[in-house]
Design goal:
2 domains; Ribosomal Protein S5, domain 2; globular; Alpha-Beta Plaits; 14 strands; eight-stranded mixed β-sheet; 13 helices
């Protein structure tokens, strides 16, 4: 077994604020090493990292094979791992009970639905199906990806598992996009959630990425050379404080209702539908499915195009055009997608309240929108740096202490932070 040391270049790509907060990151890396050694009585582990992600453009467009704009952020799941010479994968995430999976039994387990154990089994199963020979390994992980934040801690976990198995047993041969697809496979088939592919792709690839899912088997991924800080803006994610519990039906209704319209127009997904045909058949679609279904389909057609235009604006250095498109997307999610408030809720509309706070504090500058799946969770804001301190203080006064998180874009996706020698 070789000796592994931290790869400084990869470290800086993974943690853009490393030089500023060096002690924090060094302590965090040492914590996973110590945790691994204490838990598994083994020394000199390899270190892996997978980031959370932020959706920038294309709200609920990915599951209809549309276009999205997303980015990896500098919050991640950090892990130490090594093969253990057995047939058992042993995973211990800080603060959670341990999980064990026998790699000789990788069938779907109905009793594991909605658990991290199902994701471990699902990722291992798919990599095995691709022809790779896995072995058992030990893994100790810690995470600062905010749970329920819309930063997709589940996708980060899936990408971490794929990155670890790829590094330990597959000679790094599996591409980042394929690791994303492996994560989606595990989430859909084993975990039991019919997610799109945006979260996993943004986490696996890193940086700001424009993704076109028209060919879902081979999505087109373009990494943009763009940094918000160069334009004097910061990315903020605001936790509304809403509870995600019992919202599965609300989330699932969106792809289901969009799918109804696609089928009515003779295709499987809305990306393959003709927007002009949709408009020509509005009255009939409304009569058959109701008004909300029509609104959500219209949102798809328009936000899909906006995601394309947002990527073009960033590539061409037209940042203020980009901000206008972000605001348009936010209005569309509120009016047409209707994923800002929980159906029937009057007293508690936390996401809409957080959006209102953004509106007040930004005063017509920057941009803001609902973030991710919606209904609960977070909102996203692009804040001029001269307003950042007042924005953060005002947001935490209005929404709650610790609610406003200032993030950086991370260039690295799922990576190993160590190298041999």
């Amino acid at each position: 077994m070789g000796v592994y040391t931290i790869d400084e270049k990869v470290l800086l790509d993974a943690y853009p604020r490393f030089e500023k907060d060096k002690v924090y990151y060094e302590n965090r890396i040492q914590r996973v090493i110590n945790g691994f050694q204490k838990s598994f009585n083994n020394k000199n582990p390899r270190i892996f990292s997978a980031p959370g992600r932020t959706e920038i453009g294309g709200n609920h467009t990915d599951h209809q094979h549309g276009c999205v704009l997303a980015a990896a952020v500098d919050l991640d799941i950090l892990a130490a791992a090594l093969p253990n010479g057995t047939n058992t994968i042993r995973v211990l995430s800080e603060g959670f009970p341990p999980d064990e999976v026998n790699i000789q039994d990788l069938d779907v387990k109905e009793g594991e639905r909605n658990t991290s154990k199902s994701l471990i089994r699902g990722v291992a199963a798919r990599i095995t199906e691709l022809g790779y020979q896995l072995e058992g390994f030990d893994l100790f992980a810690t995470s600062n990806v905010l749970k329920g934040s819309g930063l997709s801690s589940s996708a980060a976990f899936e990408v971490l598992l794929g990155t670890v198995m790829n590094g330990l047993f597959c000679k790094g041969e599996i591409s980042p996009v394929e690791i994303a697809r492996i994560g989606q496979y595990a989430e859909n088939k084993y975990f039991g959630k019919m997610s799109g592919l945006m979260d996993q792709t943004a986490s696996a690839v890193g940086g700001v990425v424009a993704i076109d899912f028209h060919n879902i088997e081979m999505p087109v991924v373009k990494k943009l050379n763009f940094h918000f800080k160069e334009w004097g803006y910061s990315l903020c994610i605001v936790d509304s404080g809403a509870d995600h519990a019992d919202l599965s039906d609300q989330y699932s209704a969106i792809p289901m209702e969009m799918g109804w319209v696609a089928q009515r127009l003779g295709v499987k997904v809305l990306r393959d539908a003709d927007p002009k045909q949709f408009v020509a058949n509005l009255a009939e679609i409304r009569s058959q499915f109701g008004d909300r279904v029509v609104f959500r389909a219209l949102h798809f057609f328009r936000d899909n195009q906006r995601a394309i235009e947002e990527a073009q604006s960033l590539s061409q250095g037209k940042f203020h055009d980009f901000l206008s498109l972000v605001n348009e997307s936010g209005i569309s999610s509120l009016m047409y997608l209707q994923n800002v408030s929980v159906e029937g809720s009057v007293q508690n509309q936390e996401v809409l309240y957080a959006l209102m706070a953004c509106d007040i504090l930004l005063g017509g500058k920057g941009a803001f929108r609902v973030h991710g799946g919606g209904f609960a969770g977070t909102v996203q804001a692009f804040v001029p740096n001269e307003l950042l301190a007042d924005f953060k203080n005002g947001m935490e006064a209005m929404v709650g202490a610790g609610s406003c998180h200032v993030l950086s874009i991370r260039m690295a996706g799922g990576v190993e932070l160590t190298k041999e020698g």
